[in-house]
What does this fold into?
Amino acid sequence: MDNDALRARIGEVTDWYHTIELAPGIVTPGYIDMRKAADKVLPEDMSGTRALDIGTFDGVWAFEMEKRGAAEVVAIDLLDPLQWDWPHGSDADVIDQVGRRKAGGVGFEIARDAMGSSVERHALSVYDLDPEDIGTFDFVYVGSLLLHLRDPVLALERARAVCAGEALIVDAVDAGLSALFRKRPLAGLDGRGRPWWWKPNVAGLVRMIEAGGFEVLDQPARVRMKAGAGQRRPPLRPSVLRTRAGREQLALTSLGGAHAAVRARPR
It folds into this structure.
């Protein structure tokens, strides 16, 4: 595929979630740019490993693991938004709007084709992971997923069931709760009209991981998921600063989303 054809294919996707360099100088206009975070938290050398990317979306983490030498990378995701964890009473228009962002996984397919990747994707829920069906993995990555799940501990239990080596869990954390309560595990609950559920402090994320049957290997690393070209910064106006949602969006686009990265292995 030449560069003009690749740019045309990138333009077929209305909303890219991940920022991915598909060819030298050709980058998808992602909502989030995780490339620096990937360099910070993923192992530099994954040679010979069988790796799993849970909740792959456009596939940036799966492709990064492949670039680092993983012998086989499997990615899973739920492409049908009706199968996601929606709170009771969620509006059909919101479900349709959020579902269109994933666009049936077209972004992943374009990226895989452009890079000549051999990552294998399955339409599969984290809740349904079973070693009898998919095998076990030397490295399991769970990224920015627990926030969107009604039962994050169950998800971690299922991830543990297929983990034969090490897991890396990277998820959103509440920066304020993390600063105020460094040792006490706490989480805020959303669950209003969209698949945003639990946002823990760092101690809360660690406790979730332990409750799911993992042993935490070292201190969590703090990472920021930077805003990508596809994310618009809200105007700096008093009306924006007066609302919590406005302040959070301004912080997200200016500083990046607060996340913690935790290395763990099955207990």
Remarks:
- The chain has one domain: 3-266.
- The longest strand covers residues 163-172.
